Amino acid sequence: MTVGSRIVFMRFATARSPKLQLWIDHFERVAGNDGALVAPVVGAPDDGAYVWHLISANNRMLARGSRVHSALTGAIDDASRLQSVAREMQFRLVFDQYRGLYGWYASIEGIVALTCARWYVTERDRRSSIEHAELSLSVAVLRPGTRIVQPENSSSARSSIR
């Protein structure tokens, strides 16, 4: 069996999860005023929150979807749609002047659709991450199921897969 890039879905137990807030904070630092995160409606029945990210063949996170969904089907539809228009993405380079780190995000028709997975120390690493994300997205396999992230778990604790 050949293992290649894949899109993995994560479920946060609640839309108010502290771990989800870290995901949102990253989006806001990367996209700044250019991005408007689409998140579950406040006050709606809380069945959790779903996000997706692009993973390389060697299990490194390459990119993150820019939306938080209230249902897994929404996250799957979002990832599938973005795969179909991956070649049309416009990349924007960003710089965190306070920490001296490099990042990026990609948009479709002016709407932020994808962000870097993390901040990079060098310009070369940032450009390499863009190249890998762009090449991997359109050929990535959608992984069934979700990885549940419990708010009480530490960053080193394992999450369960459903």
Helix tally equals 3
Q: Structural class per helix/strand content?
A: alpha+beta
CATH class: Mainly Beta
Write down the overall mean pLDDT. 83
Question: How would you sum up the major sheet?
Answer: 9 strands, mixed
Portion of residues in beta strands equals: 25-35%
Radius of gyration: 15 Å
Domain unit count = 1
Order of helices and strands: EHEEHEEEHEEE
The CATH architecture assignment turns out to be Roll
Fold and architecture overview:
The protein has helices spanning 18-31, 72-84, 123-137, and strands at 6-12, 49-55, 61-65, 90-96, 101-108, 111-116, 141-142, 147-149, 160-161. It is globular. 33% of the residues are buried. Strands 1, 2, 3, 4, 5, 6, 7, 8 and 9 form a 9-stranded mixed sheet that branches. Mean pLDDT is 83; it is low at 152-162. The protein contains 3 helices and 9 strands; from the N terminus they run E-H-E-E-H-E-E-E-H-E-E-E. The protein has 162 residues and is of the alpha+beta class. Helix content is 26%, strand content 29%. A hairpin with a 5-residue loop joins strand 2 and strand 3. The chain has one domain: PH-domain like.
In short:
By secondary structure, the chain is an alpha+beta fold. The protein is built from three helices and nine strands; from the N terminus they run βαββαβββαβββ.
